[in-house]
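Subject: Predicted fold for Ketoreductase domain-containing protein, 295 residues

User T.R. writes:
Posting the sequence so we have a shared reference for the thread.
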Amino acid sequence: MSQRLAQVNNHLNFPRGLLADQVAIITGAGQGIGAETARLFANEGAKVIIADIDAQKANATADAINAAAPNRALAVTGDILNDAYIQEVVDKAAAFGNGKIHIIVNNAGFTWDGVIHKMTDKQWDTMLAVHNTAPFKLVRAASKYFRVKDQEPRVVINISSTSGIHGNAGQANYALAKAGVVGLTRTIAKEWGPAFGVRSNTIAFGFVQTRLTGAKEKGAFITTPDGTKVALGIPGTQLNSRAGGAEPSKQTYPDIPLGRPASPEEAARSVLAVASPLFSYVNGETIRVTGGRNM
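User M.O. replies:
I've generated the structure tokens; pasting them so everyone works from the same file.
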């Protein structure tokens, strides 16, 4: 039995958690799926870097984690499209982990919808920058902490969407970007798997209850670095049609076999599972977390 496989088997008892002594960078971790992922990782023994552009939310997430488990979370805030910030995240993660980084979860992102004939270059370029270029640059910046032979687990998880698998009207930019991370995932698996044992997988989410899938009328928005406000969410009429047109308390979501969207915590559990030793032989895959939608 190889030393690596023996180590995985030893971890199957999980006396100190699924991710004990590991260090994880989670982008977009100030809220939603990212925040829940950070909390679950910390509960399983990991130290987590809360990387987010929203300082207030990032610090609140880190404070909540540290209140339950001291010195498990560190907020590092800034713009993921800024190269200097990416390097700062990596440097602080390595310092937080005594010179090691084990997990990257490329979760940060948002939607900027528009039909093809009306979509601007800025909408197009921004989605590719956020969902493709930034994850690539973060992985590249952290490469020296992953291309090592210390027999410790190393995992990259890129968050995608079923829009990247099936396409989606009004989301040509987002769909292309989310399809693109699949290629990045598989390339990492092929380049870093053989010599270093790095696992790299994509998780494609379906309908998860976040600000990206809430009613646009609620007024959620994100501000781009140049000050542009981008409205988030789905127009109420479209949202109701997806939910069978019923009142919120009676919505059945007929296109989802489980009959409901996922909560952010349910979505985060799938990230934890993929990062954990339970998925030690899963590599280069796109794992759909959809409640059975689009089977």
